[in-house]
Amino acid sequence: MRLFARLIVTSSLCLAAVQPAWADDGDEMVAQGVYTKDNWPLEVVNRPLTLAAGMAEIGGDTLRIGISGGDLLDAWEPILLAPELRYGLSGQLQIALTHTNHTFFPPEGFCVSGEDNGCPKGYNGLGANAEYALTRGGNVNLSARGGITTGRFDPDFALGLTAGLKIRFRGGKIAVIFDPNVYIGVIERDTFPIGMEGDTHPDWLFIPAWIQYQFNTQAMFYLTSGLNAPFKDMGDFYQIPAGIGTSYALNNRMDAGLELNIGNVAGKDIGPADAQLGKFDERTLILRIAIRI
Fold first, then answer.
1. In the chain, helix, strand, coil percent, each to 5?
2. By mean pLDDT, which of 179-193, 219-233, 263-277 is the weakest?
3. 79-106 as b/e, with b when 16 or more CB fall inside 10 Å?
4. Nearest 5°: phi and psi at 107?
5. Is the model's pLDDT at 270 over the cut of 50?
6. Ramachandran sector of residue 104 (left: φ over 0; alpha: ψ -120 to 50; beta: rest)
């Protein structure tokens, strides 16, 4: 685990030390709130929460590699492609197709490792949402979103409603983001995602948070944590994840990033007494590439 953390920091410092020829200094000084797809900022902390009008982005978790341990999870399982597609209908409204991988939920996306290696199906789970920027520009940004997600396709189709509110506080090179959101089960409420007989948990709260530091115009480091828990029996099932990562803007149309994420560092151990999913057991290495057109 220390090796992967060092890999993230070292790779980011190497990238940050290089000033590529394709970086356009003219993109750095644009008034907040007036960005278009032609002058989209290199600095992540300066980007609006929703895409510019007419801009499309293919991003998300390009490659997720499980590097877990413990009694319940195997290393190198699952391996997923979990891309997302977003499109800006206007400067404030965007729509998206998503593959969101939450702790507790079955893996979403295209399974590379196979159905016998940590995935319920070769392809599982798909979400769709719309997000509206309530504010645009300045040091406090707020957006709201809502949509649906298919939690799984097999063995029984499960579907839920999702809603969230994202807020970002920014000062200079530092930004703090909170993204509280909920999943409310609609179909298969009795079996998804935890199918314990007579004791189901169909409704969930997720509160991811990030602290971002813009190291220079193109390189950004961040820490992430938050809370994952069902509304019912929250005190018995809550988990607190943690992660460290980086994002590097190759130009204003393409980013690359790397993250090490630990599913639970301070919450409850889950599972039977003789085979619990303990703290630090669930670990994921995430490679991200985002392309905007």
1. 10, 50, 45
2. 263-277
3. bbebbbebbbeebbbbbbebbbbbbbbb
4. -60, 140
5. yes
6. left
CATH for 267: 2.40.160.40
- What are the b/e assignments for 246-272, b being 16+ CB within 10 Å? bbbbbebbebbbbbbbbbbeebbebee
CA distance 238 to 230: 7
> Nearest-CA neighbor of 143 among 167, 178, 170?
167
What's the mean pLDDT in 72-86? Answer: 89
CA distance linking residue 221 with residue 239, whole number of Å: 24
Residue 9 has pLDDT above 80, yes or no: no
- Stated pTM of the model: 0.85
Question: What's the structural domain count of the chain?
Answer: 1
Q: Which residue has the tokens 């460290």?
A: 244
Distance CA 240, CA 263 (A): 7
| Structural domain that includes position 180 | 2-292
Nearest of 237, 232, 230 to residue 264 by alpha carbon:
237
